[in-house]
Write a structure and sequence with these properties.
It is globular, with a radius of gyration of 23 Å. About 35% of the residues lie in helices and about 25% in strands. Helix 4 runs antiparallel to helix 6. Strand 10 and strand 11 form a beta hairpin. Strands 5-4-9-8-7 form a five-stranded antiparallel β-sheet, sandwiched between helices. The chain has about 280 residues and is an alpha+beta fold. It contains six helices and eleven strands.
């Protein structure tokens, strides 16, 4: 049976397929509703993701209003169902954001994964920690969950929860709201160049800049971990004497970050094994 044992339903609409009044086609919405009914009957706990695709074909100044029109139409025909909608394009970071949301829902022990990630971030004195899937570099988990996300072209409908007030695309205190998409794009480009020009596979990256320390390395056989610390922590304290003069200083320590990752790696490998 098609809708039995479904882990997640991903339903795709084409953004510009509208009727003469500018509304989504009735036939398309009805077919979506029939799918939801079958899903509710055979896999009631499966999450539903709706992708409003090809948003790049919509003028920039009309994208949000076009997406909002789709969400309004979806709420009218599927008001009793719980679903998340994303405006997406294969040419932009929006598709990455949607697929990362799918991955995070499908990870069975995401709460334990996030808890251990937060423990590691605290031990490293990190302002940010994130886990990425190894091949696609999709975001699996992050430590900075308290930060307001970029809500543009995103909508969540849950009939048991009052509709929230519209949220702005806040950048929060840690930087751009779409920074994980940007990091993924940069690392994938770097991996490609490393393989093409250096003939070496990408394994890890360390950076020590004036304002921060960054470590990106393998966490498990299927994931990478990113740790970013400011130049306040983590630090190694050192002092010594030369000719009766005392010297003391503090320095960022990527070695300390790597050591913490080594010590906690077994926990994440156990979580990965338990999820299979």
């Amino acid at each position: 049976m098609l809708f039995a044992h479904v882990s997640a339903l991903i339903y795709v609409f084409e953004a510009k397929k509208l009727d003469s009044t500018g509304r989504p086609l009735a036939d398309s919405l009805q077919y979506f509703c029939r799918c939801l009914e079958a899903l509710q009957k055979h896999s009631p706990n499966a999450p539903v993701f709706v992708l409003i695709q090809k948003m790049d074909l919509v003028d920039n100044d009309r994208r949000q209003s076009t997406f909002d029109s789709w969400v309004t139409a979806l709420r009218e025909v599927a008001e009793d169902a719980t679903w998340s909608a994303y405006g997406t394009s294969i040419y932009e970071d929006t598709l990455y954001r949607a697929w990362s949301a799918v991955i995070q829902v499908l990870v069975p022990n995401i709460a334990a994964l996030t808890q251990n990630l937060n423990t590691l971030a605290k031990a490293c004195g990190a302002v940010e920690a994130a886990i990425f899937e190894k091949n696609t570099f999709l975001l699996v988990a992050r430590s900075s969950t308290e930060e307001q996300a970029n809500e543009s072209l995103v909508a969540v409908h849950d009939p048991s929860v009052p509709a929230p007030a519209p949220a702005s695309a806040s950048t929060g205190s840690l930087g751009q709201a779409n920074r994980f998409e940007m990091i993924s794009k940069l690392i994938k480009a770097f991996k490609h160049d490393a393989k093409e020009y250096a003939r070496e596979p990408f394994r890890s990256l360390q950076m020590q800049m004036e304002g921060f320390t960054l470590v990106l390395t393998e966490l498990t056989t299927t994931s990478y971990i990113l740790i970013i610390g400011t130049n306040d922590e983590p630090r190694i304290s050192w002092s010594f004497s030369i000719e009766s003069r005392s010297f003391a200083d503090w320095q960022p320590a990527p070695e300390a970050i790597n050591l913490n990752i080594v010590h906690i790696r077994n926990r994440f490998e156990d979580l990965q094994a338990a999820a299979k």
